[in-house]
Amino acid sequence: MDGKFAKQMIDFYKATFDNSFNAMVMLQEQTEKTMRMALDQATWLPAEGKKVVDEWVKAYKQGRDEYKRVTEENFKKVEDFLNKSAQ
Prior knowledge:
Layout: H1 3-41, H2 47-86
Protein backbone atom coordinates (compact mmCIF):
# COMPACT_ATOMS: atom_id res chain seq x y z
CA MET A 1 0.00 0.00 0.00
CA ASP A 2 1.32 3.39 -0.99
CA GLY A 3 2.18 5.62 2.02
CA LYS A 4 0.25 8.60 0.67
CA PHE A 5 -2.85 6.48 0.13
CA ALA A 6 -2.53 5.00 3.64
CA LYS A 7 -2.27 8.50 5.14
CA GLN A 8 -5.37 9.62 3.23
CA MET A 9 -7.21 6.55 4.42
CA ILE A 10 -6.25 7.19 8.06
CA ASP A 11 -7.23 10.85 7.71
CA PHE A 12 -10.61 9.76 6.35
CA TYR A 13 -11.14 7.30 9.22
CA LYS A 14 -10.13 9.94 11.78
CA ALA A 15 -12.51 12.52 10.27
CA THR A 16 -15.29 9.92 10.25
CA PHE A 17 -14.57 9.04 13.88
CA ASP A 18 -14.49 12.71 14.92
CA ASN A 19 -17.78 13.49 13.17
CA SER A 20 -19.50 10.41 14.57
CA PHE A 21 -18.14 11.06 18.05
CA ASN A 22 -19.26 14.70 17.98
CA ALA A 23 -22.74 13.67 16.83
CA MET A 24 -22.90 11.14 19.67
CA VAL A 25 -21.84 13.79 22.19
CA MET A 26 -24.53 16.17 20.94
CA LEU A 27 -27.15 13.44 21.23
CA GLN A 28 -25.98 12.52 24.74
CA GLU A 29 -26.00 16.16 25.86
CA GLN A 30 -29.53 16.64 24.54
CA THR A 31 -30.65 13.43 26.25
CA GLU A 32 -29.04 14.60 29.49
CA LYS A 33 -30.89 17.94 29.30
CA THR A 34 -34.18 16.12 28.73
CA MET A 35 -33.45 13.71 31.57
CA ARG A 36 -32.60 16.56 33.93
CA MET A 37 -35.85 18.33 33.09
CA ALA A 38 -37.75 15.13 33.85
CA LEU A 39 -35.85 14.64 37.10
CA ASP A 40 -36.56 18.22 38.17
CA GLN A 41 -40.27 17.51 37.74
CA ALA A 42 -40.10 14.12 39.47
CA THR A 43 -40.84 15.30 42.99
CA TRP A 44 -41.38 11.67 44.06
CA LEU A 45 -37.70 10.82 43.38
CA PRO A 46 -35.57 11.27 46.51
CA ALA A 47 -32.37 13.34 46.44
CA GLU A 48 -30.33 10.13 46.72
CA GLY A 49 -31.84 8.90 43.46
CA LYS A 50 -30.94 12.13 41.71
CA LYS A 51 -27.41 11.86 43.11
CA VAL A 52 -27.09 8.35 41.65
CA VAL A 53 -28.14 9.68 38.25
CA ASP A 54 -25.59 12.51 38.54
CA GLU A 55 -22.84 10.01 39.37
CA TRP A 56 -23.89 7.81 36.47
CA VAL A 57 -23.73 10.77 34.06
CA LYS A 58 -20.31 11.77 35.44
CA ALA A 59 -18.95 8.22 35.01
CA TYR A 60 -20.38 8.00 31.50
CA LYS A 61 -18.72 11.26 30.48
CA GLN A 62 -15.39 10.15 31.95
CA GLY A 63 -15.60 6.89 30.01
CA ARG A 64 -16.50 8.74 26.84
CA ASP A 65 -13.58 11.16 27.27
CA GLU A 66 -11.19 8.29 27.96
CA TYR A 67 -12.40 6.45 24.85
CA LYS A 68 -11.78 9.57 22.73
CA ARG A 69 -8.33 10.08 24.27
CA VAL A 70 -7.26 6.48 23.60
CA THR A 71 -8.63 6.53 20.07
CA GLU A 72 -6.83 9.78 19.24
CA GLU A 73 -3.64 8.39 20.78
CA ASN A 74 -3.87 5.33 18.53
CA PHE A 75 -4.54 7.42 15.43
CA LYS A 76 -1.39 9.37 16.32
CA LYS A 77 0.60 6.13 16.63
CA VAL A 78 -0.56 4.99 13.19
CA GLU A 79 0.28 8.38 11.69
CA ASP A 80 3.75 8.31 13.29
CA PHE A 81 4.30 4.78 11.96
CA LEU A 82 3.28 5.83 8.45
CA ASN A 83 5.54 8.89 8.60
CA LYS A 84 8.51 6.76 9.69
CA SER A 85 7.76 4.19 6.97
CA ALA A 86 7.70 6.91 4.33
CA GLN A 87 11.21 8.12 5.23
